Amino acid sequence: LRLDEQVRVVVFKSEVKGVFCAGADLKERAKMDDEEVGHFVKRLRNLMDEIAALPVPTIAAIDGYALGGGLELALACDLRVAASSAKMGLIETTRGLLPGAGGTQRLPRCVGIGLAKELIFTGRQIDGQQAFSMGLVNHAVPQNNEGDAAYQRALALAKEILPQAPFAVKMGKLAINRGIEVDIASGMAIEGMCYAQNIPTRDRQEGMAAFREKRPPRFIGK
Asked: One GO MF term, please (predicted)?
């Protein structure tokens, strides 16, 4: 996906009705020794980092349970859409663990330190509407009879992104992701570097031409 220039947006959904991702298989984990557990969690963390580093926008469609590593997967995405009835939480402390695949870092960046600490310390599960109210998800929608309301809303969101200039969207994502980790002056420098890469693109020229000619732009990602 990272290398496919035809990919504009990636939507993560589950094929299992009522479950986005239920997290690690604790029965499997119970059979591992300490070294195996450490290796397993490191691989999980690397996977989440790879998802977060995808150059195109990513959307998690949470139509059911997103618990532990399942919520960490959703947090690794750029945008999250949940059914109001979905249940999500970093429940690791209820099993003698702490989030180990990015949850302690991505959740506070998403909802703030105080709420993140409360959710992680308590292991509480919240529904989609509560998640929306605290900014954990971008949209919460009523579940439908097919059980894929969040996926349908995620597709609609993806279709809003698709017509926009692909390279500009990628540079916008890069500028946000890199800039949020540094002071604002350094962030401005990052934005400037991303903008400089966008200036010579054919899509920028097409956007200006389309505006002058009062027609929809035809972006090609170049």
From this structure: enoyl-CoA hydratase activity
Active site residues: 24, 69, 72, 92
CATH number of the domain that residue 114 is part of: 3.90.226.10
* Alpha-carbon span 216 to 65, nearest angstrom: 40
Query: Is 201 found in the same domain as 120?
Result: no
Domain with 116, as residue range(s), is 10-162
Angle between helices 166-179 and 202-213 (to 10 degrees): 120
Look up the pTM and report it: 0.93
Let me know whether 101 and 138 are in one domain: yes
Q: How many domains does the chain have?
A: 2
Cβ-contact 86, 64 below 8 angstroms? yes
**pLDDT tens digits, 165-205:** 999 999 999 999 999 999 999 999 999 999 999 999 999 99
